[in-house]
Structure prediction request, 408 residues.
Amino acid sequence: MTSDTTLPHYPAAMAQLDSVGSTLLKAAGDLLATEGPAALTVRRIATAAGVSTMNVYSRFGGKDGVVEHLFVEGFSRLGEAMNAGQASDDSIADIRVCGLAYRRFAIEHQTLYSVMFDRVVPDFQPSIDAQVLAGSTLQLLATRLDRAMTAGALRSADPLRTAALVWATCHGVVSLELKAVGPAAIDWPAVYDDAMGMIIRGLS
Amino acid sequence: MTSDTTLPHYPAAMAQLDSVGSTLLKAAGDLLATEGPAALTVRRIATAAGVSTMNVYSRFGGKDGVVEHLFVEGFSRLGEAMNAGQASDDSIADIRVCGLAYRRFAIEHQTLYSVMFDRVVPDFQPSIDAQVLAGSTLQLLATRLDRAMTAGALRSADPLRTAALVWATCHGVVSLELKAVGPAAIDWPAVYDDAMGMIIRGLS
DNA sequence: ACGATGCGATAACAATGTTATCTCAACGTT
DNA sequence: AACGTTGAGATAACATTGTTATCGCATCGT
Prediction:
């Protein structure tokens, strides 16, 4: 629903992409989604886009440039997903909705999520700008938490630091679920629900 | 302190390693710790150990075999670290000590931690046995939580599921800290303390 | 003492990211 | 209008990776 409006932190670099550049990016995204990070090779991206290998270098400066675009695009889409549910009169319920949207995004876009949060592409390090943009996703959550605090539903605290805590908790559960560490018997969706309950109770 | 005793889940494969094999493993571990996952190449491991490349294949079946050994060794050492503080009469304090030991391990062994929890080595997937062993680390935490529950310090719940929740929370905070996502202004050690407080309060 | 066997080192191979070379079409200048 | 220049893009080359094949030679059994 926010797709028709301009996102506040949307990367400027994405706007000045020509047709070949955007085709390459789309091919890379599809490749990542369908075959995983191992399929993200320069040659496969180029051939999937129907252009020659060198375009990756002239447009993006190399493989890492493509990955960085996927990285920032991932955070933009994550921000959209968390922002989908609008604010209601129940600030606690809003936080729950936000958390569930977070998990849904991670599950539905596992490989993209792994590019954003794991070091799945060797030697790739997001630029400072990209990291700042990634961090700005926290503001969404901080705003929601601040509202819950002023409404008295949560105890007062630094909203940004609290947002980091909530984010880390959600990320941790999703992360372990996706990596399948721990006994297979663990009901991770239930653990995620437990986590949201623990967050609400622990911060009240 | 448990290094002179047999660990319950210590991988049997490590016991039947000859001198060359253990030298290779040591070289790989040092390489990983000092230069990061990118330095973990078959040739560098072998030359660092002073043997020829083929030994990696005859001993471990390839690079992934070495990585799997580092993987299970990492979880064994993590288990040791979390088990270092013995049980006291304050079950809540024990849990805090356990959590702090977890963070210290992750910070002190960042690259090993990334092998254990990020997909930092392309195409490496731990075997089922290794995953089970990794999951068994949860038992340590589950035991501590169970004691706190029977002592009345925490509300009753499935200990294993609660352990998964606590583990995921700690992992999430450490993980985001190590990856430096989010604003640089965030005081992650403080967030970690917040997390432990939230856990205790949220599960009481 | 001689042949077989098997281990290990060297070399070869496929695939990766990246860089260099080369071609040729489009443009400006006279 | 013709010619030199420039620049983009494709092909090919290069270094490095994991892995496999080949070959030599020591060791063991008979």
Q: What stands out?
A: Residues 1-15 of chain A have pLDDT under 50 and may be disordered. Chain A touches chain B through 51 residues (CB under 8 Å). Residues 128-150 of chain A form the longest helix (23 residues).
